Amino acid sequence: MGQQRLLLILILCYFVQIALGGETSSFMRSQWPSTDIPLDNEAFVVPDGHNAPQQVHITQGDYDGKAVIISWVTTAEPGNNEVLYGTEKNIYNLKAQGDVRNYTFFNYKSGYIHHCLVSDLEYNTKYYYKIGQSDSAREFWFQTPPEIDPDASYKFGIIGDLGQTYNSLSTLQHYMQSGGQTVLFVGDLSYADKYAHNDGIRWDTWSRLVEPSVAYQPWIWSAGNHEIEYRPDLGEVSTFKPYLHRHATPYMASKSSSPLWYAVRRASAHIIVLSSYSPFVKYTPQWIWLKNELKKVDREKTPWLIVLMHAPMYNSNDAHYMEGESMRAAFEHWFVKYKVDIIFAGHVHAYERSYRISNINYNITSGNRYPVPDKSAPVYVTVGDGGNQEGLASRFLDPQPEYSAFREASYGHSTLELKNRTHAFYQWNRNDDGKHVPTDFVVFQNQYWGSNTRRRRLKKNHHSWSQSLFASFEDMLV
Length: 478
Ligand SMILES: [Fe+2]
Description:
β7 (104-105) and β8 (108-109) form a beta hairpin. The longest helix is centred in the N-terminal third of the chain and has 19 residues, at 2-20. This protein has helices at residues 2-20, 166-176, 201-214, 241-246, 285-296, 325-337, 452-461, 465-470; strands at residues 23-24, 54-60, 68-74, 82-86, 94-97, 99-101, 104-105, 108-109, 112-118, 126-131, 138-143, 154-159, 182-185, 219-220, 262-266, 269-273, 304-308, 342-345, 351-354, 357-358, 372-373, 379-383, 404-408, 412-418, 423-430, 440-445. The strands form six sheets. An eight-stranded mixed beta sheet has the order 1-23-19-22-18-17-16-15, with helices on one face. The chain is built from eight helices and 26 strands. By secondary structure, the chain is an alpha+beta fold. The protein has a domain at 150-187 and 260-451: Purple Acid Phosphatase, chain A, domain 2, CATH 3.60.21.10. Fe (ii) ion binds next to loops. Residues 53-144 form the Purple acid phosphatase N-terminal domain. Residues 1-21 form the signal peptide. GO terms for molecular function: acid phosphatase activity; metal ion binding. Keywords: Glycoprotein, Hydrolase, Iron, Metal-binding, Pyruvate, Signal, Zinc. It comes from Carex littledalei.
């Protein structure tokens, strides 16, 4: 019944959208001030007990979703690095050993940061885990994804540029009501670099703020400009230093040479994480890695090809206009060639979704300067509206370019619900609307399985509710 209602809403809203064409929302938001939550606020509460683990977060730990990396911080002493875990509550019959590290940044000294790989997990299974010692130990749980399968359904959340204001908290709370199972995070996490000497205390508070979600489900990390933290004036010249110490990624599983770019497969999705602020021009390690990774994508196993980056390649906002242009010049032809489904970015503190367009015919001597409709191209989504202290980017370029389908400067998050190999429900949720009403929504038709011949072949052998449901709505898909 719930699914039918959602579908009805989607269909109604779709026709409204058709009538409007490309849309710049006139919605006037109510909002909290764009100031960070005070340090003594309960959103940043430190857990009770001597040396209790805090800032607990998990991410995928391998290529295919049978491992997690569990991370936490202890402050008084290193303590042990063990994770106890099992499939029954309070029965921890398995054990994994991690490592511990710390770092300094100017006059800030981090706590003891633990990372522990827990591998050889069963798919589709709830695991309970326990970290810390004696009375200060803490317990959490997570659910592993379904086995890699073209029709595995799965719901991702997409959050970007989150920061630690009351708007950030609102975004997080709305996301936590969405039913999302894993977050695709598109960069700019804590905004600690906005403070004097890039005060690492604001990294600690941010990690406590997001713990209620990320201790229980993986967030797939990508880095933004606020993670660079290059401060030669403070003697800090090692880029991404706090971010990399705090956030492990399974980069070696995809044969990447850097934690800043990597890929994971989860359920029916192949997710590629790129670094907007690492070299990516021809012959650089990121360029070579991406070239090889795209060849490895098997749409028969993982139909949904999703790319994350921080700086958007298509953005019609005055803020950060054209900053993604160099990566567009380097990679767009591959994204079209490999029929990427969706590219999620952040950076611009507003929401925008494009139509399927490309500009791959442009070169420095041709006159083909304009993006054109291209069925093989990705949809570009900017979700840099998590709610950080810099506020919203409310100056859109006027008129709205033809490639821009919907844009609005409000805080929110997106969800992408992969239904099967052919269809996915996507929606953007403005915080002010609560959890039930999507502000922007699209039914995505898979770029590989959505082709006519493959769909016909599929229908013969694989008749499911969604195909019959959507048979009469072929035109509403992107
Ligand atoms: Fe940014």
